[in-house]
Design goal:
single chain; mainly beta; Porin; 1 helix; 17 strands
């Protein structure tokens, strides 16, 4: 990925080769999520009421050469800084964007894109080892939409040390290499299939390099591919992915997702989703988690109400462990 790094840094230098910037705007937005969830089986629920809150401070402006600049900083429940990013648009007179960000990753964005009304099949019960790329680590990200008029987007990210978290102070570094974490990258190609209205496809690949003194290489390799089709209110999707984690023993996770959603009205949607994750380990028998999920959502202005009911067999990759959970959620954006 040295070539990607050099290209990204060269584009950044070109984007900043100006003498002044136009006045920009600053705004604040946020959301509040209140929920009720209750489970059975291995999952034990205490107080079923919960709340999550998040604020985002954003700023935007434009350089003399037409390059746009936007900044975002999120603030958590504890009023602490979280993910941040700075994004340059229209880089070098093209539709490409160049970002330094910890606010997302190309692979994490497509971990499960099968249609849902409210939540993914494995959102509230069980656990899954799925593709995540270098999400959460400050990285260099380059995105080019509509390659040569094809309708496809290429989205790539690179970091010098995965798992290092958000950026530290200026002229500083973040993270430590005591755990052997090295560089990591992810690349995604996705878009609408030409001359086939309603059909979307995508593929992605990620590599997280790790070398620990005691266990040697512990690289993590990820891949996924999906296909979606929409016609009127009906949407269908299928996705398959895999994660390979090396170490003293190698674990391989193969994941499949199926989803169908139907838009009953402009405000009301319903969906059914299934997920399956098979874990293959060098030192243990294979075990497969299986989820079934039904969800519904209703939107009224800036408020969304959602309800989901999920069941899982062999939860957390433990044979014979079952769980069932229902959650109701209200989300208000402001």
């Amino acid at each position: 990925m040295k070539t990607l790094t050099k290209v990204g840094l060269s584009a950044l230098a070109g984007a900043l080769a100006v003498t002044s910037a136009n006045a920009g705007d600053v705004s604040m937005s946020g959301s509040m999520v209140a929920s009720y969830s209750k489970g059975s089986g291995y999952h034990t629920t205490g107080n079923p009421l919960g709340m999550d809150k998040e604020l985002s401070v954003t700023g935007s402006g434009e350089l003399d050469n037409g390059t746009t600049v936007s900044y975002k900083q999120t603030i958590t429940d504890a009023m602490a800084f979280n993910d941040s990013e700075i994004v340059f648009g229209n880089v070098l007179g093209t539709t490409a964007t160049l970002a330094m960000t910890s606010a997302g990753d190309p692979m994490s964005a497509i971990d499960d894109v099968t249609p849902t009304a409210f939540e993914e099949a494995n959102a509230i019960t069980g656990s899954i080892k799925d593709v995540n790329g270098i999400d959460g680590t400050y990285s260099l990200r380059v995105t080019q939409a509509d390659i040569m008029g094809s309708g496809f987007t290429v989205d790539a990210a690179y970091t010098w040390e995965h798992g290092a978290g958000d950026a530290a102070t200026e002229k500083g570094s973040s993270g430590v290499d005591a755990d052997g974490s090295e560089d990591g990258y992810s690349v995604v190609v996705k878009g609408a299939v030409p001359m086939m209205e309603g059909l979307d496809v995508g593929v992605g690949y990620a590599m997280l390099n790790t070398k620990a003194l005691t266990t040697g290489d512990r690289d993590q390799e990820e891949g996924t591919a999906y296909i979606k089709y929409s016609s009127g209110p009906l949407s269908l999707g299928y996705q398959k992915g895999a994660v390979s984690v090396e170490g003293t023993a190698e674990n391989i996770y193969v994941n499949e997702y199926i989803g169908v959603s139907y838009k009953i009205s402009d405000s009301l949607s319903v969906s059914y989703n299934e997920a399956e994750s098979r874990k293959t380990a060098d030192t243990a028998a294979d075990v497969t988690q299986e989820w079934d999920s039904i969800s519904l959502s209703y939107t009224a202005g800036g408020m969304t109400l959602g309800i989901v009911q999920q069941e899982v067999d062999n939860a957390t990759y433990t044979s014979g462990r079952t769980s069932e959970e229902t959650a109701f959620q209200m989300t208000v954006a402001f």
